[in-house]
Amino acid sequence: MASKRGFSGQRNKSGAIRVPLAALLFLFILTTLVFISPRGIRTTIPKDIPNGSNKQIAGWRERLAMQHLKSLFSKEVIETITANIDNSEPWSLDFVRKNHLSSSWKIDGLDVASTNDTTFTEPNQTASDVEQGSSQVEQENVSLAGNLPTGVKHPNAEHSQLLDTPAKLVRRQLREKRREKRATELVQQDDEAIIKLENAAIERSKAVDSAVLGKYSIWRRDIDSENSDSTVRLMRDQMIMARVYSGIANANNKLNLYQELLARLKESQRAVGEATADTDLPHSAAERIKAMGQVLSKAREELYDCKLVTRKLRAMLQSADEQVRSLKKQSTFLSQLAAKTVPNGIHCLSMRLTIGYYLLPLEKRKFPKSENLEDPNLYHYALFSDNVLAASVVVNSTVTNAKEPEKHVFHLVTDKLNFGAMNMWFLLNPPGKATIHVENVDDFKWLNSSYCPVLKQLESAAMKEYYFKAAHPTTLSASSSNLKYRNPKYLSMLNHLRFYLPQVYPKLDKILFLDDDIVVQKDLTGLWSIDLHGKVNGAVETCGESFHRFDKYLNFSNPHIARNFDPNACGWAYGMNIFDLNEWKKKDITGIYHRWQTMNEDRVLWKLGTLPPGLITFYRLTHALDKSWHVLGLGYNPSVDRNEIDGAAVIHYNGNMKPWLELAMTKYRPYWTKYIKYDHPYVRNCNLSE
Description:
Elements (H helix, E strand, L loop, with lengths): L1 H35 L17 H17 L4 H9 L9 H6 L28 H19 L10 H4 L6 H41 L3 H4 L6 H4 L6 H22 L3 H18 L12 H19 L2 H35 L3 H15 L20 E6 L3 H13 L7 E7 L4 H10 L6 E6 L12 H6 L2 H8 L24 H4 L4 H4 L5 E5 L3 E3 L16 E3 L10 H4 L5 H6 L11 E5 H7 L1 H11 L11 H7 L4 E3 L5 E2 L10 H6 L2 E3 L17 H4 L7 H5 L5
Parallel strand pairs: 1-2, 1-4, 2-3, 6-8, 9-10
Antiparallel strand pairs: 4-7, 5-10, 6-7
Helix pairs in contact: 10-11, 10-12, 10-13, 11-12, 14-16, 24-25
């Protein structure tokens, strides 16, 4: 008995487990069917319902399905299903952007809401409208109930309890308004991003120098067809093969074919000329191509030898390569030569101003406010130049952007050739409330060969031979790669005067040194308040990861250089430097310069110039300024960031492409020309124009 009872209990226990599993499986299948096809529950339609309205039948089926679902889900789930009972598809932001009916989130595919089974209201619908709509639904349900057979309970009798209350409708309206606001913000952010991208593209297009790019610009692919120069390339290829076969024909004594090839070659050369596109070719180009093709076909039949043609093409390639190298050297020579020259307009201006100055009586040759020249409480600038127009731009741009121009004092030093012109210009065009004074470097009698090593070296026979020997190799030879270091500016004491600032201005505490190829764009008085931390020179560093470091300027194979300096030390720029003259005197900067300059008499430590001795003299005595004070490269680098240029206090045209030369890059020149008075009689008479 015990064993039977135990068996029976075990059996009942197993049965109790199997029944819930079956029920859960049934519920899972039923729920899946309901969600996949909410209107797919099939039921028989009572025969007593009339066939007049399909809408009533569909509504009755839907309400009957809701009755079944109510027994399976909680009230909250039923409300969610009821609120989303429409024939809706996934929501889409693209649909919102393409259809500007409303800025709120829309439901794709929802065209007309059913008036029988929806409780959705517009955001601006009032509570009374909602109640009125609810009463209409109840009336429809009552009318529909009259058509049902006896004993059948109307489905909406219980569903009416699930209708949204006015409070819920108000909350729904608030949610809709938040969705509208969020959608509007997203669309607005997207539009702002598109506008920013368009503006950035416009700025990049402004940086393209059309004068340099010419016809082969980055926009050519958008304007011309892909094969716009295919005919030109074909003719040039024919000319190359004509040269090859003419050489072979001449070597094989095929004189008739040789003469014919030369004749066709000359015709093609005249037709192509300087053409770079098919539109530049004459109308006879097609005939020239046909005639040349016939001659080349004939030459191929008579003279073709694969090895011989290959050898000829290789020889032509080597010859072209040598010609390219020669042209590069010639280009370097011409660019260096152009950098040395003075344009006719500036030379004319200097001569006319000089004549005008020496026609003035002595009492009219003096500048006012001479008492400011030695006042250490003012802002003093040192400018050494022999270019009248360039000096005028530096002074004019500085005064124009100064907050207190009456506190600014300019000390100009020039040579005796331009002394009269420099004085006359600023007498005719005084710098507003600022003070200016012009001096002649030849009047510094203490600056002689017994004191200055550079002047002493210039008197040596070796230096004279280097600079002035008539039989010196031309710049087109390989031995003249250092042509730029024989620029006359390296012989001028105006270039080396920067190492004697305390001697020139003994009563000043600080002075700002400016080159004549810069433009000032902001007030510079903030430089005087920068703490140099006991150092002498404040300058902007120019080094990157592997360039503009000491090993580029100095000869580290020399033991004196290798022992005293770090090859990876960062270089800095001349052009805008704030000097503490008191610290200069304490550390005897001029004495350090003299010592190293004397050691470099044979140019074994560095090549000529003032930057290498400057790096040595101010080694570990230079305070790095923020890069926005001084932006360089406008005289050689076509890709300087325009934002950096616009945000710089000083921009520097260092390099050969000075803004007053025809070599200047056109996109950088307006920063310089806007400070020139082109309507001035002297400027106009010398044909100087923008």
